[in-house]
Amino acid sequence: MNKMLKLENVRKQYPGFLLDCSLEVPEGYITGLIGQNGAGKTTTFKAILDLISVDSGKITVMGKDHQELNQKDREKIGVVLAGSSFYDGLNVRQIASVMEQMYPQFSGGEFLKLCGRFGLPGDKKLREFSTGMSAKLKLLTAISHNPRLLILDEPTAGLDVVARGEILDMLRTYMEDGTRSILISSHISSDLEGLCDDLYMIHGGKVILHEETDVLLNNYALLKVSEAQYRRLERKYLLRVKKESYGYNCLTRHGQFFLENYPDMVVETGSMDNVIMMLVKGEGV
Ligand SMILES: Nc1ncnc2c1ncn2[C@@H]1O[C@H](COP(=O)(O)OP(=O)(O)OP(=O)(O)O)[C@@H](O)[C@H]1O
Fold first, then answer.
1. What is the tens place of the pLDDT at every residue in 97-108?
2. Domain with CATH 3.40.50.300 in the chain
3. Structure pTM?
4. ipTM of the complex in this document
5. Which has the closest alpha carbon to 156: 175, 125, 184?
């Protein structure tokens, strides 16, 4: 399978923080990067886009070293970064003409049609936009020049549930052409679990888990067990353990096995937040 993006042991040191990240985005995939505030998501995105220098490691974008991308290659990438935007005195129609001059592939007509569909008036200045409108505009400008790879750092940050849903719908529509790919970050797991094919969890600069979303939601589970039940559990099936007032909370990758074979045990599947919590707060077995 073609890799649209590959990071191999990319390291970046800041005072009190070390990013050490390896990840891949295969063609046709939506890959999610999930992590709490300060986990290293934005640092990873800036490294990919060559906005910061890295200390070591290798970053390959569409088969080329990320520092060797030419203008044509860069036109195949759409980006949403926190904070970046157009001058706020412009309106949507003016942005369309700026984009048309920058990107030969950009269709102003198509862009304005999409803006209309997502409730962005053509003659309203950016400074009059709500947070949700600005987020939608950023994503529409990133996808309207027909890129093959989207790199989206927290595109749903600060949005209400309706605006988040609209952003996720835009991304699903973008993916209908099967050769496109997305790397998207969020600290809200529910945004990513319904969208992504696979997920990387990042914590303290390190990737602590990489799994297909289906496996994560169906096979990873919390076992809530008493002291006696815990003593009988085979340790090899457990990833992390946390002492609780009732006994132990255990993270396993074999949730279906426990559901089928231990009818008396409390087995909770389907929550990415639980998995993250146990990976961060639980102890090794
Ligand atoms: N220019 C910088 N100089 C020093 N430290 C930095 C710099 N940029 C980021 N950091 C540190 O790197 C760590 C990771 O920050 P980063 O912005 O990548 O996290 P994040 O996962 O994107 O978090 P958030 O969800 O809050 O945006 C933090 O501890 C931050 O303070």
1. 888 888 888 888
2. 3-215
3. 0.91
4. 0.94
5. 184
